[in-house]
Amino acid sequence: MWYASIIAPLFDLHPSVLEPITNWTLNSKDVKPGSLYVAIKGEKVDGHRFLADAENSGAVVALVEKSYTKTHKNLVLIKVENVPLTLQKMAKKIIESWKPVVIAITGSIGKTSTKDFAYTLLKNTLDIYKTPLSYNSQLTVPLTILNTKKPHSHLLLEMGMNQPGELNKLIDIAPPDIAVLTQIAHVHLEAFATFQKLAEEKCKIFSHPKTTLGFYTPDMPFADLAACSGKIAKKSCSLKCPQADYFLEEKNKLFFFYKKGQLKGFFKPPLFDVKSRINLLFALALADFFEVPIPVLQKQIQQIEFPANRMNLISHKGITYLNDAYNSCVESVENALMSLPHHGGRKIAILSDMVEQGAYSETNHKKITELALQHADILVGFGSEMHVMIPLCRNSGKKWALFLSYPHLLSYVSKLVQKNDAVLIKGSRKRALDRLVHDITLS
Fold first, then answer.
1. Which is nearest to 267 in space by CA: 289, 282, 252?
2. Is 141 exposed, middle or buried (0-12, 13-18, 19+ CB in 10 A)?
3. What is the mean pLDDT of residues 272-283?
4. What is the pLDDT of residues 383-404, one digit of tens each?
5. Is 59 helix (H, G, I), strand (E, B) or coil?
6. Percentage of residues in the chain with pLDDT exceeding 70?
7. Among 20, 52, 47, which residue's Cα sits nearest to residue 36?
8. DSSP label at residue 127
9. Pseudo-torsion of CA 355, 274, 178, 168, nearest 10°?
């Protein structure tokens, strides 16, 4: 690895021990020859149990807890007091030496799409590396940094949080030069006393002394809080307010991009759902900041794709499925329902319950039920928290069903869908409703 000499002293190792490493992984199934396997002791699974598997798959080094006593013939064991904290310490050390321009993206929803859209628009202009997949946690942000193949000049990072203080830790590892706050929404509320407390935590993305510029949208709750957080210049991005610093308008199936009221350019985009347009606008605003020419943007925008399980359209046997099963909150359910295409058949909404809603759980599940009954012909619920849909559905006159068992859900939906139907599959990641798309389309 190019940074071996930077982190080797942390373990009193010679850099030559780390130089042959090809990649870092937390999953023993992803180990390949030359890997460094990181053994994480989780609440349910202890990664130390899979060290032999990692060794057999070609791992050459493993990061383990100091208490681990077994030996491995072909593995160099780096023993530390705390593996997650060590990962974070290494990543921070690399960033301090590397000094890339860090673009950090956070928000309740839209982080991954904004990051991927921005990368597509910037990659031909900047020497830039981005977070893979949705790596935005206390473990996967450091892993992103450790898996860079060379010191790119720009680093595009996605930063998430489930608990108070988590965002601060990621900011400390890789302080942003530029920060983007996509949305504040009812996601991961359980750990926060109020919605405002969650909003205050999200706005900390603008707080680091190294950060010089921020982007936010006045279209979201607590926009005023975002506008005044931190002592940095901010740019507003809006789909509603033409007076914002950046404004995106749709007319005649074209997107018109404005900066301070002046038309910068227009684009014929690929299919975009309603709420993802703000993610595109953030990407366009970043591209404008980095002076990407409009002709380049017009070309690159055609290459934009949605991440897996996010607004993915699938056609099978005359039925259109909209797979948006990566995560769920009131705002994203409304967006998905509004974006469900119509081909003359029935509209079916399959919704799982939303996790980590805390005190807002009953209210928010009622809201998504009301939205589904407004936009869909048939509502199918999945999960215990969806029980609040029962009285609302009984009084609606519409066809509905509720399941707690996945096999029963799959059996029902397989018999329910028919040609020309448009089917939304929307749920929290923990409910894994993306398997429903897979199981139905392969049946």
1. 252
2. buried
3. 83
4. 988 999 999 999 898 999 999 9
5. coil
6. 97
7. 20
8. -
9. -10
